[in-house]
Amino acid sequence: MTDILTKIENEVKANKIIIYMKGDKNAPQCGFSAAVVDIFKLLDVPFETRDILQDNELREGIKKYSNWPTIPQIFINGKFIGGCDITRELYQTGELQKIVKESVKAQ
Question: How many Cβ atoms sit within 10 Å of the Cβ of residue 5?
Fold first, then answer.
């Protein structure tokens, strides 16, 4: 488990925005993952995705890493933001746009 946690830590640090989800940004495999991808596409910012369905170790590891039981999981600038509901709420209040803008500016 330590290896996968190290891998996740490196991915989270290496990508401004990364989403651990079911499927990938071109083919989400659940409604919650699709909703999150749609939000980031609306924001028109680069983001990476990792498909937890392809790797059971990653699926379990990400839950342990974030201490969050559900998928998708969104990380911006190395910080865990939350899942679909939190991301949707942040988008609706305009807060997500601020967080993303700061993230992109920090490049």
Answer: 13
What's the CATH number of domain 2-105, 3.40.50.720, 3.40.30.10, 3.40.1050.10, 3.90.470.20? 3.40.30.10
DSSP per-residue string spanning 38-61 = HHHHHHT---EEEEGGG-HHHHHH
Token pair of 90, please? 């942040």
Query: How many angstroms separate the Cα of 93 from the Cα of each of 32, 75, 97, 99?
Result: 19, 18, 9, 12
- Structure pTM? 0.95
Closest CA to 86 of 105, 103, 73: 73
Cα–Cα dist 64/35, whole Å: 23
* pLDDT, tens digit (0-9, with 9 covering 90-100), for 74-103: 999 999 999 999 999 999 999 999 999 988
Confidence of residue 46 (pLDDT cuts 50, 70, 90): very high
